[in-house]
Amino acid sequence: MFELEQAIFDWRQQMLAAGIQSPVPLDELEIHLREEIERRIKAGEPEKEAFQIAVQEIGQTNILKTEFAKVGVTVYERLQRLGCALAGIPEYQLAMNMNAPNQNLEPRWATYLKNAAYVLPALFFWIGSVCLVVPKLKEICAQSGTRLPDSVLLALSISQVIKENFIFGSLAFLAVLVLLEWRSRRWPHYRRMVFGIAAYLLNLIAFVLMATMLVFAVVAAANSLHPK
């Protein structure tokens, strides 16, 4: 009995065996293949015939291999590899995720749960800093005559805006996630990488914020002890 998902998976394996190792263009090809199959099935063709004709229209393996070899590594792929490195995802693991059918990807609950565990400490530190530490630091700097740089003041202003619109921003973020999970076929392939990079950046920002507050607290304390 013909199984469409298995046939598509076998087609991808043939592409990989032929030397088409670039996961992003191969994922694009699969999207086009699935769209063509879906269009033909809706027109009344059996799944097997729809798959075979769609494969022929997409192109033969050796022709595609030649075209991919002309393109080489794109800037997008270089950025993607850099993002995976920041997120702590090995390149081979990314390729395996990109080339596997959706049922073999990491479950969405696992991705969200793990990254929530990574992000929550930084989030709690940021909330505590914005609500408790930053106002006190501004007061100490004002009393000691310590002037904060414009870049630091801008960052603090942005933090204040985020704090004031935190609930609305959280709801908008959740709405975007729901739409991606519901409507995007490619999102499951990129979910782990996106959240890995986001968790890395949030923790980096929290570290920079902590170091900045510590530095200016020391400077303000020194100015208070030795006023000019």
Helix share of residues? over 70%
Please give the count of helices.
Answer: 10
Structural class: mainly alpha
Number of strands: 0
Which descriptor suits the 3D outline? elongated
User: Poorly predicted ranges (pLDDT <50, ≥5 residues)?
Assistant: 67-73, 90-100
What is the residue-averaged pLDDT? Answer: 76
Distance between the termini: 87 Å
- Elements, N to C (H/E): HHHHHHHHHH
User: How would a textbook summarize the main sheet?
Assistant: none
**DSSP strand (E) fraction?**
under 5%
What Rg, in angstroms, do the CA atoms define?
Answer: 25 Å
Overview of the molecule:
There is one protein chain. By secondary structure, the chain is mainly α. 82% of the residues lie in helices and 0% in strands. α2 crosses α3 (47-58), α2 packs parallel to α6 (91-99) and α5 packs across α10 (187-225). The relative contact order is 0.11.
Jot down its keywords:
228 residues, 10 helices
Concise overview:
This protein is mainly alpha-helical. Helices cover 82% and strands 0% of the residues.
How is the secondary structure organized here?
Blueprint: H1 4-17, H2 23-42, H3 47-58, H4 61-71, H5 75-87, H6 91-99, H7 108-144, H8 150-164, H9 166-183, H10 187-225
